[in-house]
Amino acid sequence: MTDTLTAPPEVPEQEPLGSIEEPLWRVRLRLTKRSLVQNWKLFVANRIGLVGLVMIVIFALMAIAHPILMATVWPSQIYHPINGYDAPVSEKLVVEEVTDPVTEVDLTTARIQYGPFTEIGETVSISQQPAPPSFGGPNPHYLGTDPLGRDVLSQLLYSTRSAFFLGLIAAMVTVVFATVVGSVAAFFGGWVDSVLMRLADLILLVPLLPVLIVVSALFRISLPLLGLLIGILSGFGGTAIILKSQALQVTVKPFLDAARIAGGGNGHLILRHVIPNVLPLSFLYMMFTVTDAIALEATLSFLGLLSIPMSWGIMISIARTQGYLLGSLEYWWLLVPAGLAVSLLAAAFFLVGRAMDEVVNPRLRQR
Amino acid sequence: MATPNGRKLLEVDHLVMHYKTKKGDVSAIEDVSFSLAQGESLGLVGESGCGKTSVAMSLMRLAADNARYLNGEIRLDGEDLLALSEEAMRKRRWKSIAMVFQGAMNSWNPVYTVGDQIEEAIDLHIEPRPTEKQIRERMSRLFEMVGLNPAMLDRYPHEFSGGMRQRAVIAMALSCDPRLIIADEPTTALDVIVQDQILKELKKIQEKLGMTLIYISHDIAVIAEVTDTIGVMYAGKLVEYGSTLEVFHRPKHPYSYLLLSSTPSITGPRRKLAPLEGEPANLLDPPSGCRFHPRCPFATEICVTDEPPLEDKVPGHKAACWHSDRVPVTIGVAV
Amino acid sequence: MLKYVAKRLIQGLLLLMLFLALLYILLDAQPGDISLQLSANPRLPPEAQEIVRERLGLDQPLLGRTVTYVLNFFQGDLGLSFTQYPRTVGSVILEKLPRTILLFLSATILAYYMGFALGKVMAWRRGKTVETGLTLGGVAAYTVFYPWFAILMLWFWGFQFGLFPLGKFIDVDEWTGAPMAANRVFMRMLISLGILGLVLGAVSLLAHRLPPERGEQVARYGPPLVLVAFLAFWWLSPLRSYVADIAHHTLLPVLTLASVQFAGVMLLTRASMLETLKEDYILTARAKGLPQRDIRNRHAARNALLPVVTSLVLALSFVIGGGILTEGIFSWPGIGGQLLDATLTEDIPLATGTLGVIGIIALVGHLISDVLYMYLDPRIRTS
Ligand SMILES: Nc1ncnc2c1ncn2[C@@H]1O[C@H](COP(=O)(O)OP(=O)(O)O)[C@@H](O)[C@H]1O
Ligand SMILES: [Mg+2]
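Output (structure tokens, whole complex):
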């Protein structure tokens, strides 16, 4: 405090909490808004979280861009991520050992693609698939084409949308499962709690990937189903356990007793008092679920275990099954854009989750 | 502050220490001087935030990384601690100066037994290194001295109660026969009864061993039970210094007076508590003149402009106040 | 303490039964008739199909079938593999299990050892810019698309630099005229590694028991000496070139799997260490005049270790998933690669059997880290 003899200390003017006439919902709204603003400030103070958010926004823009591009500049028969086809024909020199794949072709490939009597030294026109990035011509392929002659950029953008779609489903299912299981276990305690928590232990313990691998052998797994599975498994596992301990803090608070005495039913109490208190935390863990979902989908697609038409994982999987992976990074456009996209979007949600964690968890903040 | 009977054990001389922060310098110790002879005990008192812990930590040279010593010396046996190399200082810690920390409840590492942690200090500082058996005997004796069962040496800290942990900390502080022991609010976290027991124990030990002690507390009544001399700190400055009886009955600084009269007396008659109003000074931007003037009932013009020197008001009883004579004598405060 | 371990063991067994039961119910729930799915495979001769149907008690109701399945599993009877008939699932898994365990164990130990050592030092000398960079690096390693990363590692070290073979367990050409099968050589290697671990443990125990100066000497010179002795043993052995071949094939998959785990451990250690350094007992340790190294290792790191050990439980799922992918990409013949193959060839008994065994691995890992934690934290040990 400053010198009290000369000047009274300044008291920052507080917004009044609300008057009697004001309806309750509006007070609530304003309180929510105020805490949102505060949390936002804390979140922004952490630069790493902001980096994650910016990355997510960029990916979202990519997802939105795809249908727009398809409707305006990209003719469907060429740029459609699944059914499109374009194999630019280019003149190439037949050589024994290829040093520059853009201008040269080896003898075997040339004989298969051009004609069985091709000899070394001839120049042949070869239709290229996969083709390296091209920027000119009527149909530029900025990231080249895949082994089936489809535009990689279009696939990349299209897959962004499915990644968000999957993440959204998994996240929502997680939130629902984790809050319900956590709240119910905390609220009822006793055997309900025991059963739910042992089950959560089990789910937490069993490694997700092998289970999904085996499940994919037994059932056809589509994107929404995968989202559902990941959501249930991560929501019912670790997240439910954390949320239960959060919910426990609420259930011992006196106002819950007061509400019970006032005649609230169990369902009402859980819905009205327990769930709103654990919901923010479940939104935090939702971010990590999205990270997991993106990585898992890509992994399962990579292994060829999902029935999904196109995704980042499928893009790498196609390159792999067609034999373009190993050897060198000669066909980098088949491997690098999709791999980076998976890694970056997963990282983005993870970073946002971490930053939110610091907002929610004051102990982490002060270093 | 040389005294006629030669050098003292500890001499703190015009010590100035600031903490560097983003918001500016925190003037935590501002020109503090005092001295302590072998076997003497000094109590440092003041509200929380007025720099007592900073003084204690400076004596150990363990103040936070952002602490800067701008002036002064801390001499132990004539040797300036602030001038020592870190390695030389490290060897003096616990051997020359031991400390019982504020919140000593958490002073124990949870993964080692209490005995092991005491032994660690003995291993390091006592030369020639005693045998395992001698160490064990020594630790048992220490435990008995502080009223603990030596069998507890093999127990882990979590198996001790708060009071027992604190006693064990005192045993550990005594383990290397330090020249000086600093106890920084050693009983604050304990409940009143345990607090009182430990205080009595400490006083007993201090008298028995002729230990040199600096006892820090925000509670002046506690200080009075243990020490011969009292130093009152306010906003980084030593504002009053004298024998416990003198300061207690005839305080020469309004701050000491207010501290005394706002402390409820356990044994004395009931009296009206005079409140100590306002907040402790902001050390980022301390008040001009006397740092206490914004809260002082006797403040006048000079208090705002000029800083009062710490000087003898009565022989051996110093205070830094322009209006010492107006400070009333306390009545009914029991010691 | 024993009671605690026993309790954990029983809990683990119950969890395992529950897991197997759920696994069977899942199997049973798939479209089509379960008895046909599990037995009527054209690759199985009719008499084998009959045996399978009998063993699985497929004419019982669901509960009975489930119980039979779980009991069979506990007796080691995991059914017949469709693709490798007449081998049983059990024998196929048993052959590959040691290789998987080696991969998982060595990658985990390496990652935790290095991650802890580095995280500890990082927290001790923390700096602002390094902090952001390292966090980003750690997050990148944690969220990188693992198969992609593994392929890049293989490409970079194996293809580009030719330092390592491109996958597989042995180089078949090298093994013509070998005195014994690769698996037997491998088992010997495993046993020797086990002995190495025990000896190293004994040395560190000895170092703690001896008086400080002697103990320090033992701690400093003991482990390198033991390692040299270990290497010398294999160097002088007639199996040298074969052992070297296996080791050469093992290194890259282990390093790849370890490096993603390592980043997480390092970050966690660092955070945990920074937390610990704020504790009062660190101040006490400094006041006692302990040298910096003792404060860091004996007091701070020892406590910072506890959350890191806890994280082992959560990391298990991560390690196992990563291990399966590693085996797939490096053609490492372990049960993870087995699981992938079995899934792709729809060898359902082999796939589910393998998954069951993976569940056991997870449980055992969980148990180990629980016991380790209890050993490290006296607050649990003595209560
Ligand atoms: N590391 C630090 N950096 C900045 N200011 C500090 C630091 N440590 C203490 N302070 C400030 O210094 C002043 C004195 O603190 P302290 O010595 O702990 O007082 P006391 O022990 O009397 O309560 C307080 O205002 C406190 O806020
Ligand atoms: Mg203090």
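Chain C has two domains: 2-74, 89-179+238-382.
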